[in-house]
Amino acid sequence: MRLTKPLLLAAAAAFALSPPVSAAEERPSPQLSATVDGVVGEDSQELSIERLDIEVRRHGSLATTEMTVRFANPTDQTLEGQFALSMPKGSIVTGYALDVNGVMIDGVLQPRDRARVAFEKRVVRRIDPGLAEVDFSDRFETRVYPIFPKQGRTIRIRFVSPLDTGQRYILPIETSEVGNFSISIRGITPDSRKGIKWRADGANFIATGNGEIDGEIAFDAPVKDGLTMSEHPGEGAFFELSGETPTGAGDSSKGALTIAWDRSVSRLDDELVREAGLAEKIARELGVSSVRLVLFDSGQAEIRNVAVKDLGGVLGNVRYAGGTSFDGLAKALADSNGTCILFTDGRATIGNRENLSAAGCRLVALGSGQESDRAWLEGQARMLGGTFVDIGGAKDEEVVQLALTPSALPTVTDSNKRAVEVRALPAANGRYRLVGPMPQNGELMVDGVAIRASSPLIPNFTAPGALWAAQHIALSRDAMGSEELAEQARRWSVAVPGVSFIVLETPEDYVEAGFVPPGSYPKDLRARFDQIKDQQEAIARDFDQAYRDELIGYWEARKRWWAGPQRNVNKSRADAAVDAVTEEAAAESRPMAPPPSPIAVSQPPPPPPARVTGGANDRLESDEDRIIVTASRIPQRLQETPVGASAVTDEEIEIAGDVTVEGIVGDGASQEGERSNVSSGLRDDLRETIETAEWSVDRPYIAAWAKAGPDWPAAVANTEKQYGSIPLFYLDLAEWHFRAGREAEARRAAEAALDLPSKDNQTLAIVAQRLLRYGDADRAIWLLKLLADTESDRPQPLMALSQAYAERGRRTDNRDDIVEAQKIMVGVAMKRWEGIYEKVGEIALAEANALIVELGGQQAEGVMLDSQFVAALPVDVRVVAEWNTPRTDLDLWVREPSGEEVGFSNETSRAGARYTHDLTGGYGPEEYQLREAPDGTYRIEINTFSVDRRNPNGPSVVTVRLIRNFATDSQVEETIDVEMQPDAEGRKLIGRIVID
After folding, report:
1. Distance, CA of 214 to chain centre
2. What does the CA dihedral 466, 467, 469, 474 come to, rounded to 10 degrees?
3. Which fold has domain 19-207+499-513?
4. CA distance 590 to 577
């Protein structure tokens, strides 16, 4: 369920229990590394910190920190610097700046993926960009490029932090050699407990020096009960309210207990043994004899009643599989009463998080992982009278006490008794700390009593507003697209996961990236930006019109090709060459065939016809892998049924003569556990069978799974420890399950890949396609919508989304899905994309017209394509190649029976084939089509021309769609996925189509 509106009481208490454990204590901070020219693997140890300046300011029980770092590059090489800082727990980054030509330029918050693309484009072009990102673990990271030889760069970051439950601030600083450093604290006396020597400087304290730093910035700041006010720039006054919790809150030490246990792969690095022990201790403290246990991940939730004496053992034997999803959790908790304990990190990787407010129990969320969405967990727990407890560094008895102690926050309203949205910050047991926006009339009511600030002075101080905004955004982010999320982050100047700060070098860079410079941008540069932007918008309008004209030209050329003479070359290559010369000589005297008629229908459209779709052939490691599809060509427009087709591997080529249109015989027979899709209602002599060849990938863990037999769960768990850090492991596991007939396990394994830190948008795209093939079109569509939103600058995600809708519509006989698929594909065709995708519109028009055929023709309800572009253009053979990596140039080649090769350097053949699109910048599609296919063998090959990088999803995977009878009601399609090793030379044989 999407959150449709902000909640009035979006507050929650975050108990960072004493003794506090900062993420900074787990690894040195700050960390500095570098690569030569930004090339992964080309590491440099020479980048150093020339100067470090830190200023900390305390107001109430909150702090702001500003850190300025000057890097020095003493080498003769250009470096890309990576700087990471572990901040105090619960911190929010509110500002980032980078020097450009000696001027500090503030970063602008943009959707993470758009910011990354803009950064990487400029690294390639040696332009000055800076990128700053945060995650859920209180860790800040920035990439700076270029740092020129013998020069330096400067960054500045700002963040806000709540003091811990003991009212203490700790920022460990551990560095190698520093040229000079200066540290200043305002408004509080620092400790001198470790490594840093302070001296008074008026109302401030400072520390200066050089060399290595191994210390910490720390202070205690006891705060009096009451109200502290501050001004958030552009958003008005905010308050911090602290005091003792109201008495008589009731007793939660009795009643039923529900344990909701997240068993997704993301939990494997949590303190699971300790969490299981805490669950048992809470149950015993409550005095219950049994527990209602809800085990959930992206698969089907499992609910069982477990005796308390068995609880530890049951939780200790949980198998962690699947991604993180909260689908169905709200319903499971709605059937509960008493106390519910939720063990999770709160970070859904598939599906929108459900609002848990309808649960029938008091909810306490416990987390031990480094990356937890505290803001969301806090808000959900607070709505149900509970709290979020971060168990890191706390004693078990403290956790149990807090889990069983009812939360008792005061009621906060304005003078008209309207609830004020507040956020609760970490507080000691028996106390509370709240932040929120001050009502416009300046009157705040706490439990019905008016309360005012102790001082009339309201300083500018961003911490309360930023901390409040972070939770406000977290509770509604699932209902936001990436641009809306970035807009909200910019409004409050808070860097939340999924949104990044970026600095670009020139006004032209901002225009090109589609970003608006920061409000602090120098006036002369802003004026230049506005001028360039106006010019570019005018040019874009002209380009949009020019694109439509260009698309008309491409489409008319395609129609002329389709209507032109189709040469049959079922003869020798020499004879074919003679025929070609004769044909060319006669071309001018022969009248041109009429163009294809628009698709028409004279009766209400039938439901979408069923299509036969084969599975992927994933024999990925051998250069000898191939597919043969045998068929007989039937003249276009006379076809009444699909032609026969069978798929076999290279090892089966010798028996290809035994493959008949009735099915596969001999060694080509279907293996146990394989899928066999057979069309129905066909003549016996034209019955079609599409078989998926046996899957074989030479990776060591797959052999271990197969050897284990029925004990495969243990084998998976063992290999997971060594190989489970990259998505490829789970993608292989998914296919292994699928081939064994375990489709539910296949889906869980594929979704598990989304839980890994190393996953990226390529992972998301692969998982979506796997889920579509494994039978879950709904989640595939959800993922592809997300991908289309985050990568809106390229057409491929939308094309994949269209195909997913169409596939779901065919499976469920849902015409509305076919209409939606056509709508999306039409949108792709009519939009002007970046130059490298200039011919994608033509391919999208072909796909849209095929969908119109399914809908019943041009006059059918729901058809949205301009009649100027409606023409079915059916073809006998169509091959479309796409791949999953950017900055990768793969080339599709088809060798026809005559021996002629069709590809980017030979776009047409004597047989009448046409090659559409050579896409050199990544993803595809590239298309081969032949209206009337002569008899013989068609070799489909892919050449790896250039590869940008290896990635955690494995080598580039090319997806090849082999389509017979395209844009007819008897269309048949086989999809093949093949790995392309980056160091492989020459072409790889993908498959063969044999027509006789």
Report:
1. 38
2. 140
3. Immunoglobulin-like (2.60.40)
4. 19
Q: What is the pLDDT of residue 675?
A: 27
SS3 content of the chain, % helix, strand, coil (to 5): 30, 30, 40
Cis amide bond preceding 162, omega within 30: no
Instruction: Give the mean pLDDT of 380-407.
Output: 86
Tally of residues, the chain:
996
Asked if residue 104 lies in contact with residue 97, where contact means CB atoms within 8 angstroms, the answer is yes
Most confident among 399-403, 667-671, 674-678 (mean pLDDT): 399-403
Domain ranges of the chain: 19-207+499-513, 250-407, 523-563+595-609+698-872, 619-696+874-996
Helix 777-790 with 796-812: angle, nearest 10 deg: 160
When computed from its CA atoms, the radius of gyration of the chain, rounded to whole angstroms, is 32
Domain 523-563+595-609+698-872 has CATH 1.25.40.10: yes
pLDDT number for residue 867: 95
Residue 969 to residue 580: CA distance in whole angstroms: 32
Tell me the sheet residues that pair with 68.
Answer: 53, 156
Copy the structure tokens of residue 550: 């260009």
Banded model confidence at residue 865, pLDDT cuts 50, 70, 90: very high
**Is residue 953 within 8 Å of residue 766, measured between CB atoms?**
yes
CA distance 847 to 828: 10
Query: Which of residues 693 and 396 earns the better pLDDT score?
Result: 396
Residue 922 DSSP label: B
**Which segment, 8-17, 357-366, 501-510, is predicted with the most confidence on average?**
501-510
Phi, psi of 228 (to 5 degrees): -120, 130
The pair of three-digit structure tokens given for residue 322, joined into one six-digit string: 């699947």
Q: Rounded CA gap, 474 and 471, in Å? A: 5
Q: Is the pLDDT of residue 40 over 90?
A: no
**Whether pLDDT at 945 is above 80:** no
Residue among 787, 796, 762, 835 at smallest CA distance from 512: 835
In one-letter notation, the amino acid at residue 202 is G
Quote the pLDDT of residue 643. Answer: 28
Q: Is the pLDDT of residue 640 over 60?
A: no
Q: Which pLDDT score is estimated for 957? A: 79
Picking from 6, 59, 63, the residue whose alpha carbon sits closest to that of residue 423 is 6
- Arithmetic mean of pLDDT, 872-888: 87
Q: What are phi and psi of 926, to 5 degrees?
A: -120, 145
d(CA 81, CA 66): 20
Burial class (CB in 10 A: 0-12, 13-18, 19+), 39: exposed
**418-421 long-range contacts, Cβ below 8 Å, gap at least 24?**
419/8, 419/9, 420/8, 420/444, 421/6, 421/7, 421/8, 421/9, 421/10, 421/11, 421/468, 421/472
For residue 887, with 0-12 CB atoms within 10 Å meaning exposed, 13-18 middle and 19 or more buried, which class applies? middle
Which residue, 687, 685, 749, 681, is CA-closest to 712?
749
The mean pLDDT of the chain is 81
The residue among 319, 934, 269 whose CA lies nearest residue 632 is 934
Q: Cα–Cα distances in Å, from 853 out to 336, 479, 827, 870, 873?
A: 51, 35, 18, 10, 10
Residue 160: predicted pLDDT: 97
pLDDT in tens, 739-785: 999 999 999 999 999 999 888 888 999 999 999 999 999 999 999 99
Q: 250-407 belongs to which CATH class? A: alpha beta
949 close to 936: Cβ distance less than 8 angstroms: no
Contacts of 540 (CB under 8 A, 6+ apart): none
236-244 and 226-232: which strand pairing? antiparallel
Instruction: Tell me whether residue 792 is exposed, middle or buried, using C-beta atoms within 10 angstroms of its C-beta: 0 to 12, 13 to 18, 19 or more.
Output: middle
CA 250 to chain centre: 43
Q: Are strands 257-262 and 168-174 parallel, antiparallel or unpaired?
A: unpaired
DSSP string, 444-486: EEETTEEE--S-S---B--HHHHHHHHHHHHTTGGG--HHHHH
> Structure tokens of 428?
């000691």
